[in-house]
Each structure stands twice: as C-alpha cells, then as structure tokens.
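Suppose you are handed a protein chain with no further information: no name, no annotation, nothing but its sequence. What can you learn? This example shows the usual starting point.
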Amino acid sequence: MTTNKGLAELAIFGGEPTFSEKLHVGRPNIGDRARLVERIDNLLDTRLLTNNGPYVQEFEQRVAECVGVKHCIATCNATVALEIVIKAIGLTGEVIVPSFTFIATAHVLRWQDITPVFCDVNPDTHSIDPHQVESLITSRTTGILGVHVWGQPCEIDALTELANYHKLTLLFDAAHAFGCSYNGKMIGNFGAAEVFSFHATKFVNTFEGGAIVTNDDDLALRLRLMRNFGFAGYDKVVSLGLNGKMSEISAAMGLTSLESLDDFTEINRCNYLHYQQELADIPGIRMLLYDEAQQCNYQYIVFEVDEHRTQISRDHLLAILWAENILARRYFFPGCHNMEPYFSEIPRESLQLSATESLVQRVLVLPTGTTVDQATITKICQIIKFALENAFEIKQRMPVANKLDVKTTLF
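A reasonable first move is to predict its three-dimensional structure. Written in structure tokens, the prediction is:
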C-alpha cells in the first residue's frame, strides 16, 4: 500500500470505516444473562421492586465482603452517593478537588454551596498532587476529595497525613476503582468514606447505581437515614434526607455482575496487555501502565499523545478513529475548571493547573471490555500506527483539529 493510497482508504478521507458497528470505550458488560433474567423474574413475581429489598441487601453485603469494609450503602447513582456523604459529614466552605476528573466530582460540592478548589495532578499518575493540595489549604478548607483516576489509587498515605495534620475530612471518589487495591488493602477502606460507581459503563454495573463504603458505624447510620428521606421507621422521620435508594432491578444486575467480576477483570487485563504490546516503542505515545503488584480492574486503556513528537495532535488522531467507528474518548476534556459555572467564576490567574492543562490536550482512552477482542485491538492499533507514520501528509489534508465535530457518546 502506498502512502497516498493508504490515506485515501482512511474513512476520514472518504474510505469505508474499518468497523461497521461503533466501538465504545465503556460498552456495558452483561454477565450471565440467564441468571439476570431469573432474578428479574423473581422480583416481578414477588413485586418487591424497591425500598431496600432483598437484592439490595444482598448486593450491599457482597460489595462489603469484596472490599473488606464494615458498611456498604447502595444508592441510585454515584453522584447522589457523593452528595449524601458530603452532607452527612457536614463539609462546608472549601473542599480541595482535582480538576482532572468527571464534572460530577465538582458539581456535588457546588450543589451544596461548597466551593471546589481545583488542584493540579501528578502528570505521571494523573491523580491529585498532595504537594499542590497543601498549598491550597486555607482557613475555609474543610476537606479533601481525592479521585482514584483510572482505578489507580491516589497518593493515599500523603493525603491522609495532610488531612490529619490540618484536621480536614478526607473522602475519595472511587468511581473507577472497584476491585483495586493500595499497598495490599482494597480501595474502599481509606478516608472517612469512599464512593463507587456502578454505572453501565463501569466494569461491574447495576445498570445505573453507586455505593458508599465506610468503616465508621455512626456515619453509616446517618447515610442510611439520609438515603431514605430521613426515615427511621414506618412514619418516623429523624433527619433531613432524599431519595437515593437503589432499586431491586439494579441490584439484580449488580449481583449478576459481581458473579462475573473475575472474568471481566481477566478480559480487561488481556486487552490491556495486548494494547501494551501493540503500542510499545511508538515515539510520542505514552501508555499509562498499571501496577500489577496490586489488584486492578484494568478498566481503562489510557495513553497520551505528544504532538511535538507525533506531528499530529490528539484531536487529529481522535477524529481519524471516530471516522473508523472507533469512539475513543478525550477524558477529562477540557478539565472541570474550564466548564461552567467554574469557567466564568474563577479568575484564570488564580489557577495553577499546568499538568491538568497539558493532560486534557494529550489523553486518549480506547475501547476495551467484553465486547472488544484482540483482533479488534490489533486493527485499532494498526490505524493509530498508520496515522502516526503518515502524520505530515494527514495534517496537511485535515482541517484544524479543534474545529472538528467530535460528538459525545453515552458510553
């Protein structure tokens, strides 16, 4: 194949897409469909659809056992879980949080009139930088909200030491980190509490759902009350609360997912190792590596594109992949601080987010999971390698990358 002929075959230049069906970054894992249907039939027969039914109770028990914590409080989604735990602990004023995260992490604070103070991240790990955290602590700071991005644990020990020294509450958004460990201890055991996501895109899912895990008995009691309008009995309300309950059908899916947890993890790991092999030694490409000495869910395939070396930007590469029906994602573009309402409210000169600003222009996340096999991964990587080998000609023929219409996706 000559360079010119090859370029013409790229879908972005009029060729046929490599894949007839769209490949998503996080297409849902289903597990044992027959077992799921059996559970759904049972809940329809019993008509126990919600209100802390038997599936929810069993799911909470199974999650607590997997993580090794005393309490799991299942919720309708992880955003509500964060809202409830922030309210239950009584955070106020300012809370330090990374900008390199999903927008919900910031919104749950602002929704409760707490100011999210955006912190930079370690450019190597993509997680909140404890040294930067310390420089942002003021008299109004009441907490630190760390995020285990990509399932990679934060620098938990350093954050814990900071929080203890300054008498701050430490929470973790562990949306990505179910099934992961830190120094041999499962994520979920750190800080005052941690929050998991079981959204459809997560490797273990409940269709839509989340959970708070904690070893604090008093906090767990408050969380259970607040998840159910503050009810402490049939018609006795003892605290402020909202409707954050998980439904029985969601818990049924969660239990089915948990039964396939090891299979999902192994598929993700095999996919990760195959991507690692295919993308090795490519100038300008750095793949984020997992610490295989720890337990990991290998849920995300993350790499950075260094435009100075590749000669085409991450967004050029993104557009090429999308045209081939490979719906890669540019997490967490453009950074929470560049989204509303924060962009309009925070003075630019007050932000020190150089690593974040770089990462949001470099990071690309590729499809994986049970719907992606190794032959598909090879094809994806062949397209990436071809694009980089022909970067100069591609850049000449493509429009400015940041003007390309790259739409968002649910997955």
